[in-house]
Design brief:
Oligomer: single chain
Radius of gyration: 30 Å
CATH topology of the largest domain: TIM Barrel
Strand content: 15-25%
Number of domains: 2
Number of helices: 26
Structural class: alpha/beta
């Protein structure tokens, strides 16, 4: 088989080595438009895991690389005059130029033809080859020639960065964060060989322009950065090598092969340099493609196997890289708002691939220090995991940071909770959750979603709810809050298991909303609320709040989210009014804020109020994260205590970007920019996630839904798994308490 590999970077060269090494009969030509000695950048980074893959695929190449790399385990973070170090990370740096030399030598040794200074204008130039590999990078000629076949997408990120070098040796992979009159600059620095280090400088476009770097020459960039980082460089100069300012492009392709052409490396994908190098990804592509070629005689089958194996792996990495690059794009939000310990932990866990638990394995001393710092901020001695650190809101103190999420049970009769609700909430209280929030509880009969929804609008509701709050308070340390709401246009529907959001087949009640827009095309059209409706609904919230106090709830949560009545006033998608309750942001928040202030006025001063928001509608032209920050500031000024940050469900057209902890960045943004405590919800399923979110300052409470349905004792099990049980056991369960594991900060097996 005749194979042309277009692109003589590390990915293309390494693929040639692997393909030729596994089958010497293959005739392989690597075609590179530049000279053999040309390269840009300085060093490349490999994780220990990547090096293990290279060693398994081709030991000779690995040995050559290993003889030349600089290895380190530590990460140093310099922030606000302090340096914090974490160890156990395992990276290796290598000169890009040296890597190319090693791979070129291996190609020659194996009999691969190398053609330098030859440009390929189209696949027609390669008609004599059976297989063509597009390893020609970001601006791949071959990929761009066949866009209908590959379906490429490029997302140009807003930050600017430049790739520099220095002779200064760094003791670890080093991050600097430094602010001057132009803005905040971040540095990613690491050694890649004796006497040489990479020094990447990144900043926002605003700071880049303010510093005049948008028009700077390479020498002017060098001079500016040397002056800014003079202390950090310790007298060493910066080195340039095509060190222009760039924007990072995130590349993806719908398909990785077309006809006899297959993509590897940057032509197929990119991932931000803060999580790994393009070289690492390209060389791992080469391993996968060679393996697929060896296992399949048919070329198309081999390409399909390669894409099937490698594409999901890359997409997973790209999701982590997206979170990581956004962390660096949004560093201004954290800079100064987080103390050095929390800032460093946030940086180390930014991609979500490293968690509190994983970091504890790598560097237990560092995590112990983070836990101790976190506990100290809460006035607690010792170093419990963050999720088992108390939190106080006004005079309510929750013993841990785990919250039972509001989840509708659709099991009430005319709003009255029954034994089901007692068991549902009571079991999670005994199960150790620090705070329980009831399902969406409606302030009027016509404010319910379904006939089975709970309410707080009849005297008997107070008695029924009081039975539940008494059980929680008498049998656990948990606190319990009630979520008050009005369904608005999403009301008068069937119970979930009979057709979620579908109108009732009979017995419908009239609906109200800010504008007469049905939720589904065949849903009931709501009546546009007039002045009397607005006053009536506000008064219903006030009545429900007073009844909730009589029922001995510890907290109220007002539901401003998920397309229900108050959210539908907030969102321009559902609020088309032309009076003082529609149009501008200030008008759209007017009624929800009137409700909040009225409720706050009657709710006891010592008890907190939460507000659940949909931080974004996930719709063009809808409610945005920026709107949520502004609303949170208004709520804080009105004496709201915490914001419960959810998202979406405004309309059936909402398109959330689902994933693990997908709503946590929204919580973090509201928390930091509005300076108010937050709860985060959405695909939180492990105690490692809880501890990571809390320690990094992304939220103050973690709201758990589905995991609590699966395991009512989720919090107690999390305590056991972390070698502790911080929640006192109910008396009936502690009869044999000497057999209950108690935490004594020693390894399991040594507990008494």
């Amino acid at each position: 088989m005749r194979i042309a590999i277009v692109g003589g970077g590390p990915g293309g060269l390494y693929l040639a080595v692997l393909l030729k090494g596994s089958d010497p009969a293959r005739q392989i030509t690597v075609i590179e438009q530049n000279r053999a000695s040309d390269t840009f950048g300085f060093g490349v980074v490999f994780s220990d895991a990547t090096l293990g893959n290279i060693a398994e695929a081709d030991r000779d190449t690995y040995d050559a690389i290993a003889a030349n790399f600089a290895h380190w385990d530590d990460i140093d973070v310099h922030y606000e005059g302090r340096m914090l170090r974490s160890t156990g990370h395992g990276f290796a740096g290598l000169s890009r130029r040296r890597l190319l030399e090693l791979l070129q030598a291996r190609c020659v040794e194996l009999g691969v033809d190398l053609e330098f200074e030859r440009s390929i204008r189209s696949s027609d130039d390669l008609a004599e080859y059976d297989m063509i590999v597009a390893a020609d990078g970001l601006n791949s000629v071959l990929r761009n020639e066949h866009t209908d076949g590959f379906l490429p997408k490029i997302d140009w990120r807003p930050n600017r960065f430049t790739w520099l070098g220095t002779a200064r040796q760094f003791p670890a992979f080093t991050f600097y964060f430094k602010e001057n009159e132009h803005g905040l600059f971040r540095v990613h620095a690491y050694n890649f060989e004796d006497g040489l280090s990479t020094f990447i400088i990144e900043t926002t476009e605003e700071a880049w322009r303010a510093a005049g770097l948008d028009s700077a020459t390479e020498d002017e960039t060098k001079a500016y950065c040397e002056a800014l980082f003079a202390d950090e460089l310790e007298g060493h100069e910066l080195l340039t090598n095509r060190s222009i300012w760039r924007q990072f492009p995130t590349v993806s392709n719908g398909r990785w092969f077309h006809d006899n052409i297959v993509l590897v490396g940057d032509s197929a994908h990119t991932a931000h340099f803060s999580i790994g190098s393009g070289t690492k990804l390209a060389m791992e592509d080469a391993i996968s493609l060679c393996r697929a070629m060896d296992a399949n005689e048919n070329l198309q089958d081999a390409f399909a196997a390669y894409e099937g194996e490698r594409k999901p792996q890359v997409e997973s990495l790209q999701r982590a890289a997206q979170v990581s690059l956004e962390w660096f794009e949004d560093t201004e939000r954290m800079f100064g708002a987080l103390e050095p310990e929390q800032f460093t932990f946030s940086l180390l866990t930014r991609s979500l691939r490293i968690t509190h638990e994983n970091l504890k394995v790598r560097d237990p001393e560092f995590v112990e220090g983070i836990n101790e710092w976190f506990a100290g901020r809460a006035g607690v001695d010792g170093a419990p995991p963050p999720m088992f650190t108390p939190l106080s809101l006004r005079e309510m103190t929750v013993e841990n940071r785990v919250v039972l999420s509001p989840m509708c049970m659709y099991s009430a009769e005319d709003g009255t909770p029954d034994d089901w609700h007692l068991v549902h909430l009571g079991s999670r209280a005994i199960g150790g959750a620090g705070l329980l929030i009831t399902e969406m509880t409606n302030v009027s009969r016509d404010g319910r979603i379904t006939p089975g929804c709970t309410g707080m609008y009849k005297p008997e509701h107070v008695t029924a709810w009081r039975r539940i709050t008494d059980f929680v308070h008498e049998n656990s340390e948990a606190k319990i809050g009630i979520q008050l709401a009005h369904a608005g246009r999403k009301g008068s529907t069937r119970r979930m298991w009979k057709g979620i959001d579908e109108p009732l087949e009979s017995g419908n009640w009239p609906l109200i909303a800010p504008s007469p827009i049905p939720y589904l095309p065949h849903s009931q059209v709501p009546r546009e609320m007039d002045r009397s409706d607005i006053d009536r609904v506000r008064d219903h919230f006030v009545r429900a709040a007073q009844m909730s106090d009589a029922a001995d709830f510890d907290m109220i949560e007002l539901h401003f989210a998920h397309g229900y009545l108050l959210h539908s006033f907030l969102s321009p998608v559902t609020n088309h009014r032309t009076d003082k309750y529609g149009g501008s942001f200030e008008n759209r928040i007017r009624f929800p804020m009137e409700v909040f202030r009225s409720v706050r006025a009657v709710w006891p001063e010592e008890k907190p109020i939460s507000v659940r928001i949909s931080a974004t509608d996930w719709l063009d032209g809808g409610w945005t994260a920026e709107d949520s920050v502004k609303l949170a500031r208004e709520l804080k000024a009105a004496r709201c205590d915490i914001i419960d940050v959810s998202s979406g469900q405004t309309t059936p057209e909402s398109r959330p970007v689902f994933g693990r902890l997908y709503q946590t960045p929204l919580s973090e943004r509201v928390r930091l920019e509005a300076d108010i405590p937050t709860m985060t919800v959405g695909n939180i399923s492990s105690y490692a996630d809880c501890n990571s979110v809390l320690a990094a300052g992304r939220a103050d409470l973690c709201v758990i839904a589905r995991a609590h349905l699966f395991d009512p004792y989720w919090t107690r099990h999390a305590a056991f798994e972390q070698y502790m049980d911080d929640a006192p056991w109910p008396a009936p369960y502690s009869i044999n308490s000497k057999y209950v594991p108690r935490f004594d900060w020693s390894p399991r097996g040594q507990n008494n």
